[in-house]
Amino acid sequence: MEHIRPFIDPSPPLGIEQMIRDDHRKIRALFDFYLDAPPDSRQPLVEQILMCLAAHIERESLLFQAVRKYGSDGRKFIEQAQLEHAEIKVMIRKVQQAEGDDDQALDEFFERRMQMVYAHFMTEEHLLQLIDPWSNG
Question: Taking the model in full, what pTM does it have?
Answer without folding.
Answer: 0.77
